Amino acid sequence: xxxxxxxxxxxxxxxxxxxxxxxxxxxxxxxxxxxxxxxxxxxxxxxxxxxxxxxxxxxxxxxxxxxxxxxxxxxxxxxxxxxxxxxxxxxxxxxxxxxxxxxxxxxxxxxxxxxxxxxxxxxxxxxxxxxxxxxxxxxxxxxxxxxxxxxxxxxxxxxxxxxxxxxxxxxxxxxxxxxxxxxxxxxxxxxxxxxxxxxxxxxxxxxxxxxxxxxxxxxxxxxxxxxxxxxxxxxxxxxxxxxxxxxxxxxxxxxxxxxxxxxxxxxxxxxxxxxxxxxxxxxxxxxxxxxxxxxxxxxxxxxxxxxxxxxx
Length: 312
What we know:
By secondary structure, this protein is mainly alpha-helical. It contains twelve helices and three strands.
């Protein structure tokens, strides 16, 4: 196997100033998406995890952790932890071996301190059914927490999906962009709710507005591709509303107006509005109503005459 990439890179030269993307067929016949960089290239699967791996037998680490935490929430047990019976058997075996090895230095049996104030080990079974939901900015119960290593791995995985949805946008695969941005928003939600440290809970939040914007942009682009301009406007309006709610929840509603993500969606909306099929009669009626509200009766009279001519 020749590991030298020179011929491959020469055959596909890098073009500065643009994102160089192409879709090819792999040796297994499955589509692969490639991104040409100045010093090499990225190659990703178009479905599942971009690098093609299946961590713990799942499509992604996100799917694995979501499944694991769901099982803990439902049954109160970590499916990856040793079963209570196995742990008890191990402890019994260790105690049996210890019985045959007397400690010559022991002067009296060991005993627990009655004043031990350590909390008992507890799980979700200790949480009442009517308890309030866990706040996003508060740590989850210990059994439901994600440690620093797990959060780091989730962030690294999210970067793979980021590279892919940018590439998919270039080749007009808008449904793929919606899929991958929605998926990365799930990563942010999972870490915000379950990360053990404040740093890990906040690490990816700075990217939330961008991901929300990209999702709305892709949904609108797909609607236009399907020749549905009204659906495109609806997708953009939904995206703007989601961004507005996000900044309001942060306590900074004024940031919405200054948001570059919101500006991008507004610009896209303004470019689409003239494409909406509005009849001349409807437009004249709207202008007539506005003229009456402004008490511009001279303009209103002219508009009425135009409407009368259309009827005739």
